[in-house]
Structures are given as C-alpha cells and as structure tokens.
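User: For a reading group we're discussing how well predicted structures match intuition. Take Secreted protein. Before you show the prediction, I'll give you the sequence so everyone sees exactly what went in.
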Amino acid sequence: MTLRHLRNLVLALCAGFSTSALAHNPMCECKAVDAEQIECTGGFSDGSGAPGVTLDVIGYDETILVPGKLGADSKMTFKKPAAEFYVLFDAGPGHVVEIDQADIQTP
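Assistant: Thanks. Here is the predicted 3D structure of Secreted protein, as structure tokens, for the group to look at:
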C-alpha cells in the first residue's frame, strides 16, 4: 500500500466516524402538565432514550432549584419553581440542551 492509499483510507475512516458522531444529537422537550407540574422528556436523535441523564432546573442566578436525573422512561416531572428558571439536559460534553421557561409548552 502506498502512502497515498494509506492517507486516503485514513481520511475515509475519519469521515465515517465524524458522520456517525453527528447523528447522535441530544434532544429534550418540556411541557406543563398543569399549572403546578412540568414534565421533561430527553433522548437522542437516533431514537434512543436517556435514562439516568442529568436534568437540572436552574434559576437565573445559577442556583440549582431542582436537581434531578431522568427516570427509566427518560422523563422527569417536577413542581414549577416560583423563581425564573431554565432546564439543563446534560448528557456530557457536546450533548447539552437548555430550555428556557418561556419555551416550555403550556397545556
């Protein structure tokens, strides 16, 4: 195998790995169940769930109002905080989603 063929093989392999890495994007959706409760569901763009992934409710002053993790069904329900907040779905570096309270769906 020549150096040129080896270089092309390495480039092809790297392109394949980067494509599969991009196909696994984090997704999170939150909606109001009623005036008091909010339910968030997390997962990934490949259709997989996210059980055990960190989902924290954070105040605008950066204090954690409701620490949590998604359940076996990739969902978490929490009482709506009185303070302004956002939801942080954190599945690790490059796999973070923030949802501001203004973007939470109402019933």
